[in-house]
Design goal:
By secondary structure, this protein is α/β, with parallel strands linked by helices. The protein is built from nine helices and 15 strands. The strands form three sheets. Strands 1, 2, 3, 4, 5 and 11 form a six-stranded mixed β-sheet that branches. Strands 8-7-9-6-10 form a five-stranded mixed β-sheet. Bound molecules: 3-phenylpyruvic acid. 3-phenylpyruvic acid (PPY) binds next to helix 1, strand 3 and helix 4.
Length: about 325
């Protein structure tokens, strides 16, 4: 029997384009995105605007890399666009090549096109090999390379390996990243309020503002997690922007909002923070199950709450 025809695409996924970016490789990991419409965009703002307006069902965005840390444009956009939720995370190993128009040699390179996140991951190689180069920021790794064929403002570009197969460019140097095991973490962001069911290997992302001018506010924030046995895998401060000295924290916590210890930590945060943004609980890319001692088991929290309710209700105690 012939295969049934593919169903008509109904969902649009935005991603940092053009085709061939690491972001596209991350989107290729999403089973539900296969056969759907993939919309290349030029920056994080455009991707989020697509999701906020309903033009796209979801957007794939780089959020963190193992060499250069958080992608601040993404973190700031997540704090400012309301009603967005992270619905999945995906890891892509990243490696870079330096490409140029045919006929260019490494000695000819003065100015380099590069996406800022890629540039930040090749810093050592660039300082060693091309100490007096200039940098023109590009909107993506592939855009950096293809711009070489449109203008001669730059002599070379930092790009993903394999780019020379699709463009008339030559590779001047390979493996120029500062860490051969570099990995970028991408998140799929959608406009939904629905919770994703816990898997036992989950992560919860939050943005937490601290009350200003209060000593110990950061410690207060950390204690909410520590006293409930919730481990953090990312904590990064970003300026709120309205005045000096005001910061929000981007935090990834092990566990799911439906885990009692995580829910209890959120209650604690809400009591002292002027603003807690819940960005979502979603399955971890590495599928690593969360370890915690029995002291922080769901049952212990439920039993303690029932005990308190009993006291308030005047139930007899043993
Ligand atoms: O997706 C890409 O290729 C990008 O241009 C963004 C990026 C930059 C550096 C590492 C991972 C993603």
């Amino acid at each position: 029997m012939p295969d049934a025809p593919n169903p008509t695409p109904t969902q649009t996924y935005s991603y940092l384009g053009p085709a061939g970016t690491f972001t596209e490789a991350a989107l290729a990991q999403v089973p539900g995105a296969r056969g759907q419409i993939w919309r290349p965009v030029n920056n994080v703002g455009e991707a989020f605007a697509d999701v906020a307006s309903g033009r796209s069902m979801a957007a794939m965005i780089a959020i963190e890399n193992s060499v250069d840390g958080g992608v601040t444009a993404t973190q700031d956009a997540l704090a400012s666009v309301p009603n967005l939720r992270i619905i999945g995370e995906y890891l892509v190993p990243v490696n870079f090549v330096l490409v140029a128009r045919p006929g260019t040699t490494l000695d000819d390179v003065r100015v380099i096109n590069a996406h800022p996140v890629a540039y930040g991951q090749c810093r050592n190689w660039l300082e060693r090999t091309l100490p007096s180069h200039g940098h023109i920021p590009a909107s993506s790794n592939v855009a950096a390379a293809s711009a070489l064929l449109e203008t001669d403002q730059a002599d070379a570009a930092i790009a993903p390996p394999g780019i020379d197969k699709h463009h008339d460019l030559v590779v001047l140097a390979s493996e120029i990243g500062d860490n051969p095991n570099a990995v970028t973490r991408f998140v799929l962001v959608a406009r939904t309020a629905e919770l994703i069911a816990p898997t036992g290997a989950d992560k919860t992302s939050l943005i937490i503002e601290l009350p200003s001018d209060r000593s110990g506010a950061l410690l207060d924030m950390l204690e909410q997690f520590a006293t409930r046995g919730v481990n953090l895998s990312l904590i990064q401060s970003r300026p709120i922007g309205d005045s000096l000295g005001r910061y929000r924290f981007v935090v990834d916590a092990d566990g799911h909002i439906l885990d009692e210890r995580v829910a209890d930590a959120l209650l604690g945060l809400r009591r002292f923070s002027p603003k807690v943004i819940f960005l979502g609980s979603y399955p971890r890319a590495d599928k690593r199950r969360i370890e915690f001692t029995s002291r922080y088991d769901d049952g212990i929290f439920i039993e303690a709450r029932d005990w308190l309710r009993g006291l308030i209700a005047g139930e007899p105690t043993e």
